Each structure stands twice: as structure tokens, then as C-alpha cells.
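User: quick one - fold this with magnesium ion bound?
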Amino acid sequence: MKSKYADLKLNVDINKIKEASICIKKGKIVLFPTETVYGIGANALEKKAVDKIFKAKGRASDNPLIVHICNLEMLNSLVEEVGEIEKKLINKFWPGPLTIIFNRKECVPNNVTAGLNTVGIRMPSNKIANKLIELANLPIAAPSANISGRPSGTKIEDIIEELDGKVDYILDSGMVDIGVESTVIRVIKNKVHILRPGKITVQDIEDLGINVIIEKQIMEECSSKEKVMSPGMKYRHYAPNTKCLLVYSEDENKMIEEINKQIENIGNVLVLGRTSHLDKYNTNNKLDMGESLEDISKNIFTLLRKVDKYKVSLVIIEGVKKEGLGLAIMNRLIRACEHNYIEIN
Ligand code: AMP
Ligand code: MG
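Assistant: Sure. C-alpha cells for the protein plus magnesium ion:
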């Protein structure tokens, strides 16, 4: 391995996290776990360090990074004002998988925010992430750990090939908990706008008595020239090289029937389906997504990384109901399939 590596899977060695935190202090970049996906982190206050993240990922400079913090003091040092609704959300969901967009202070470098006057901030609940930020005593800017366009890294084995040697330190704690990236929201006129769906759902926020608006771009195609509230949405993301088709119906028999029809027409197909549906498909090429939405969210990026090995003409992926965590799963899957989507009523 070219990057420095620490295996924290069985034993969380605080000295290794300390070494990684020293890397952050020195302006180097560290691959570390969070509860959502792995991140590539740098000192969020140092422009040059943040540049190294963009370089390692090949990330477009107009795609802003999320800043990870471990206490509210850090938040106040980065943002102009924390409104009442934001305070409610923080009380309920931090530390956790919710990124909130705030108006930023001058100290946040331009490359972190891609030139915007806002900054996305989150307090991760993952103990290693939290400790790393605390020991570095710095806010850490960190996008997902993957080469831009590829599925986000949910375990080190999936991303080691593309990132080894490109980061200074790797903290490996095994498989992450959630598997899809954080919910990204912005409060506008007392309403929460969902810019990217995640584990914190529309219902979770509405339960606090707050009105929620789901940005339509979450499930739609947007052109690279279009002005979008969440710049990450306009990029090709998660898509394997093999063509993928997303199929969904509320009636699961109709969904299975449609997928079998596609298999019959095309022949050389790989199906990604729920455990309980797999034996209903007339092909030998099948991958198990798991049964619950939590399973699917955990497995989806690893599965998307596997499909190109099958050398098939088409990958067919079962959709889920766009509700709760299902909205986050469908947002990622529709991108993986480049909007190649069939929904049957
Ligand atoms: P990643 O860290 O790779 O999951 O990407 C972070 C995503 O968060 C970006 O692609 C944006 O869509 C979103 N984001 C980060 N900062 C902002 C911001 N200031 N305004 C709107 N969206 C943001
Ligand atoms: Mg990403």
C-alpha cells in the first residue's frame, strides 16, 4: 500500500487517529469513515490543502464540499447566523447524516464552497470521524471517497485501487452504517428544501412541525449549464460503464413481469433485485440487494461497482418506493441508470 494505512476494524487505536489528525494539521489529506460513506478530508480553512482533495478525486471545481465539524463552536466560527429552524434541526439530528447549508463567513476558502456565499456543514456521528476532527481541532472539508463520477466508497476494498497513493493516510473501520450520502437541506423562508435526499427523511423533518419542499431536480435530469441549488446534482454520478435500466412498479408482480420481459428480449442481462424476488428472475446473472431499505442503502454502491465485471448487455435494477429512505435510494439509482427508467402503474 502506498498511502499510510491503519486498520481500525477490530480495535480503534486512538494513536492512529492522532497520526491522521496530525496529517490534517499539516495540510495533508486523510481518507476516513463516516456513518454515511467514507470521506477524503482536509483542513477546511486551508485552501491549498483543500485543493489536494479536488486533485485526488478529479472533482470539478464548481462542486462544493461539505465541512465536517465536532462542536457548535466550530459551526459559529464558519457561518454568519444560525436561524431558529436550523437550531431545531441541529438539536434533533446532529450529530448525524444531515448537512445544512448556511451563509458562510469570510474565513471559509472559496474552493470549499465552489465560489458560493453558502457553505454546507454537518456534524458526523461516526466516532472515528468525530475524534479525528476533535484531535485536529479543525473543521474538515470532505467529499465522498471516490474518483468523481464513480460510486461513493462504503468500504475500503472498493476504493483502494482508485485512491491508494492519492491520499496521505487511510483509516479503515470496515463497512459504513448507512451507505448513502447525507441528506442536504437549505432553509428558505421558514421551509426546508431537500437538495439531496438521505437517511434523514422528509417525514423525519415534518415530524418537527416544519414544512418541507422536495426539489424537483432530485429525480429529474438537469443539464450541466442549468443553475441548480445543489451543484452535485448536475454531474454524471454513480453510473457503471454497462448500460443500466431502473424498473419500478408499486405492484411487485408487475415489476417482476416487466423485468422478465426485458430479460427475454435482451438475453444477456444482470438483475439487481431484492432477496425475496431473486428466484423469480429467468436469468443466472443476479445480485442480491438485500431486503429492507436499510440493506439496499448499505449495499447499493458496492453492487454498482461489481456490475461491469459481468460483461452483460444490460443491467436491470429493481426500484423501490420513493418514500422515506427509498427517496435517497431512487435518487442514486436514477443517476446510476442515467435516467433510463421505466415506471409501470
Ligand atoms: P459529496 O461530498 O461528494 O457527497 O458532495 C457534496 C454535495 O453537497 C455537493 O455535490 C453539493 O451538491 C452539496 N453541497 C455542498 N455544499 C453546498 C452548498 N454550499 N450549496 C448547495 N449544495 C452544496
Ligand atoms: Mg460524492
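One thing worth noting: Residues 252-266 form the longest helix (15 residues).
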